[in-house]
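Need residues for this backbone.
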C-alpha cells in the first residue's frame, strides 16, 4: 500500500491568514500545509488499485487536483471537527465519475455529527440541488476494505475519544492528545507511524512536539512522521529537534507501507 499526505496542517492551514511569522512567510514549500488528510492506495485481490480517503478536509478539492486522483472507493473519518469533514461536498464529483455512491466509515458519534451538520446530503429534498451520494457505516472494531485490515484505535483528543486507524503496518493518528493503555497494544510493530504534533508549546487537545517524540519513542515504529503541524514548527529549521527515525510530514509526501 501507499499512503500520501494530502495535507499536514492544523485547522488553520499554514500560512495562517494575516500572519507574518517566519514560517508563514517562509519560501520553504514544505511549510505550506493544507488541512490534514491522507490518501491510501492498495491493490485488491483482483489486482485493481483501490483508493481510500481519510477525512474530507476543507481543502479536499485542491488536494485531489494536486495529487491527481480521480477516484475514491471509500472514505474513513477520524472525527467530526470542521477541518476534517467540511470538504464533504466535493465528494459529489467522484459520484459522477464513478457512477456510484461512496461508502463512508466512522464511529457512531462522528457519523451522527456528519448527518446533523450536512443534513441536506441525507434528506430526499430535491430543492437542495446536486449533492453527494454517500452511504454511512458505523464501525466499532477491525474491518476489511479491499483486502486491507483496518483497525480503529481509540485515541484522546482533548475531552473526546476519537479514532486513529491502523492499516496493516501503518498507523495514522492525526488529532491526538494521548493514547490510552489498551490502544498502545494495537500500535506495536509498526513500520510507519503518522502522528499529530501541533507545536512546541503544550496544547489541551493535541500533543506538543516533546510529547509526540516521547510517544513515538515508546511505540518504536521503524519510521515516525509528524503531521497536523501548526505555524509554530518550521520544516527545515526545526528538523534538528527530531531524533533519528522521526521526521516532519509535508504535503504530497508519499510513504510506502
Ligand atoms: Zn484537526
Ligand atoms: Zn504564522
Ligand atoms: Zn480535531
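Answer:
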Amino acid at each position: 500500500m501507499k499512503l500520501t499526505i494530502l495535507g499536514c496542517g492544523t485547522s488553520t492551514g499554514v500560512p495562517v491568514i494575516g500572519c507574518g511569522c517566519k514560517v508563514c512567510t517562509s519560501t520553504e514549500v514544505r511549510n505550506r500545509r493544507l488541512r490534514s488528510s491522507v490518501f491510501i492506495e492498495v491493490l485488491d485481490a483482483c489486482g485493481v488499485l483501490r483508493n481510500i480517503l481519510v477525512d474530507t478536509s476543507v481543502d479536499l478539492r485542491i488536494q485531489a487536483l494536486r495529487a491527481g486522483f480521480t477516484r475514491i472507493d471509500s472514505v474513513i473519518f477520524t472525527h467530526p471537527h470542521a477541518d476534517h469533514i467540511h470538504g464533504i461536498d466535493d465528494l459529489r464529483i467522484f459520484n459522477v465519475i464513478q457512477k456510484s455512491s461512496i461508502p463512508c466509515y466512522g464511529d457512531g458519534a462522528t457519523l451522527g455529527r456528519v448527518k446533523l451538520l450536512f443534513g441536506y446530503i441525507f434528506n430526499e429534498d430535491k430543492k437542495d440541488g446536486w449533492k453527494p451520494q454517500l452511504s454511512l457505516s458505523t464501525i466499532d472494531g477491525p474491518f476489511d476494505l479491499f483486502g486491507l485490515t483496518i483497525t480503529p484505535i481509540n485515541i484522546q483528543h482533548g475531552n473526546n475519544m476519537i479514532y486513529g486507524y491502523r492499516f496493516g503496518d501503518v498507523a495514522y493518528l492525526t488529532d491526538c492528545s494521548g493514547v490510552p493503555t489498551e490502544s498502545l497494544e494495537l500500535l506495536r510493530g509498526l513500520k510507519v507511524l503518522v502522528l499529530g504534533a501541533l507545536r512546541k508549546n503544550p496544547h489541551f487537545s493535541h500533543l506538543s512536539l516533546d510529547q509526540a517524540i516521547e510517544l513515538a519513542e515508546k511505540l518504536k515504529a521503524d519510521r515516525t512522521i509528524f503531521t497536523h503541524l501548526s505555524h509554530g514548527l518550521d520544516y527545515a529549521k526545526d528538523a534538528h529537534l527530531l531524533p533519528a527515525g522521526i521526521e516532519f510530514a509535508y504535503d504530497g509526501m508519499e510513504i510506502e507501507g
